[in-house]
Amino acid sequence: SFKLPPMSERFFVTFNVFWLCVWTIALIGLQYRMRVALFPLWFLGIALAANALGHVALSFVARGYFPGLFTVPLVAVAGIILLVELTRLTETSGTPPDRLDERYWNA
Asked: What is the per-residue pLDDT across 47-77, written as a single tens digit (0 to 9) for each?
């Protein structure tokens, strides 16, 4: 019983394909140890955590099931793992600002 109109299928697909492309490019950048590639991955980790909290909150507001509620635990775990790994990867180490910490790659 939300007052928002549902998003169109076209918008939903375009939005999701766009972000899948951004994250795929970020993973390629990560293979080349480019720090700039971490920004969209941090965004993904934070978005996964926010998505999980949002679905639980919307279920309370709706006073029942809200689409995506049953898959939220998987999304939350993936987000937490990603954020932990990104935190480990980006620890201050005194490395040059354009490349990632060598200690992470050799661990």
From this structure: 999 988 888 888 888 888 877 788 888 989 9
